[in-house]
Amino acid sequence: MIVVEDVHKHFGGFHAVDGASLTIAEGSITGLIGPNGAGKTTLFNVIAGVLPPTSGRVTMQGEDITGLPPHDLFHKGLLRTFQIAHEFASMSCRENLMMVPGGQSGETLWNTWFGRKRIAEEERALRAKADEVLEFLTIRHIADLKAGEISGGQKKLLELGRTMMVDAKIVFLDEVGAGVNRTLLYTIADAIKRLNQERGYTFVVIEHDMDFIERLCDPVICLAEGKVLAQGTLEEIKANEQVIEAYLGTGLKNKDMIGA
Ligand SMILES: Nc1ncnc2c1ncn2[C@@H]1O[C@H](COP(=O)(O)OP(=O)(O)O)[C@@H](O)[C@H]1O
Ligand SMILES: [Mg+2]
């Protein structure tokens, strides 16, 4: 689905991504792991159009998407989740989902004057869809709560929910489990698995929690110092000498992450 070829991203003289090449198979839940500072988030941002690469190429289903802005990628079904923006915190969770652009006609003046009936119908459909998404994510009960008032884990689920308001093909998740309690972490993992199995979403997941990676991801790709070190099952990755060395070389905290 996605092919990354020799991507570099430099910040001044610093090579955050340093010739990364990888392939994301359609229908997979691919895990991206690596020590802190490995370049995972930067690589995500390059693929998702948030940052232009210094060099290299990204293709999606054979089409060159290198450097396309997030908006264009969104319409192609490539989504990266973002934290719920500050200005949306005072809106309800349902409204936050309804805000996700999806070709509503309520936006133009023409439609405001001439399409009231259609707008009302579309709004009803959007509302129903938002509620269906909340139901799927087991958070129907927070529909009317303000997005700024829900727990960290519920926010993560809501962010995931935003990807369900459009026809996503591939979704990039950067540390969805960070700061989330175990129960919610498993709810999130379950939602990802079901979206993958029932709706055919492909996922790429950055996560430090190896338990979470183990439950979900095959294959797992390990990045270190901006380069892909290894790709395989989590067991293979954990047994890989280069991977262990990369984690060991970056200190005790990183070492614990992989259980080395
Ligand atoms: N905008 C930036 N300007 C300068 N350096 C950056 C920038 N973004 C990230 N970096 C650096 O690039 C390296 C990789 O960062 P990042 O992609 O966030 O790693 P990871 O997500 O694997 O922890 C880090 O050393 C970080 O400090
Ligand atoms: Mg990161």
UniProtKB/TrEMBL annotation:
Going by the UniProt record, its keywords in alphabetical order are:
ATP-binding, Nucleotide-binding, Transport
Q: Which organism's genome codes for this protein?
A: Pseudodonghicola xiamenensis
GO cellular component: a single term: plasma membrane
Task: Give one Pfam family.
Answer: BCA_ABC_TP_C
PROSITE patterns, alphabetically? ABC_TRANSPORTER_1, ABC_TRANSPORTER_2
Q: PANTHER family per the record?
A: CONSERVED COMPONENT OF ABC TRANSPORTER FOR NATURAL AMINO ACIDS, CONSERVED COMPONENT OF ABC TRANSPORTER FOR NATURAL AMINO ACIDS-RELATED
Keyword ATP-binding on this protein? yes
Matching SMART domains: AAA
Q: Is the keyword Nucleotide-binding assigned to this protein? A: yes
Q: Which Gene3D superfamilies match?
A: P-loop containing nucleotide triphosphate hydrolases
Q: Which GO terms describe its molecular function?
A: ATP binding; ATP hydrolysis activity
The chain positions of domain ABC transporter read 2-250
Q: Which domain of life is it from?
A: Bacteria
Q: Could you tell me which InterPro entries the record lists for this protein?
A: AAA+_ATPase, ABC_AA/LPS_Transport, ABC_transporter-like_ATP-bd, ABC_transporter-like_CS, BCA_ABC_TP_C, P-loop_NTPase
Per its record, how is this protein called by name?
ABC transporter ATP-binding protein
